[in-house]
Write the structure tokens for this entry.
Amino acid sequence: MAKINFSETEREAISQAIEKAESKTSGEIVPVILNASDHYPGARWRVATSAALLLGLITMLIVPDLSGLYLLVALCLYVFLGHLLATQAQILRYALVQSEIDEEVQQKAYESFMELNLHRTKDRTGILIFVSMLEHRIMVVADSGINDVAPENYWQDVVGVLSARIRSGDLANGLCEAITLCGELLAEKFPITEDDQNELTNTVILEEDL
């Protein structure tokens, strides 16, 4: 799977969006972008097995008198080719089960929330904007301080804005808009104080950063 890469200009724009949003609030916003929330070994084996069965059937139809030993060698090769196919996101995605996606994305989002110490902000106002590209999933995970006072469906609105931008191929600006929306709510509910300190990073977190 191709790795997510932001240009220096895009990274700087995202950082500036975070800094601008946090300049009006004591809250903290951290965006995390992953290629995938899991390696999905089960799905990879489903692709490999399906490829081996299909190619094995074709082989037997084309060469009906192929010996068992050669067929076994061919099947092993087809399994290997199937695993190579599963490295392609478009193919692997078709082998994923919905419940599997739900579980892995949620688990990875909450793990990221904890690993990045978003649960340790002074007023419990940390917000994680989490995007997992393979699964086409976005989650906003907000700590109890801000989540308890957020209007109904506010996080879904943030997801909707970001999702629309991603579909148009503009992930960086989508993140900036989502950050701005989160910052507006934080500024309203938790305005900045004189003794405010920046508690967390003001950069986008990618897979290699976790």
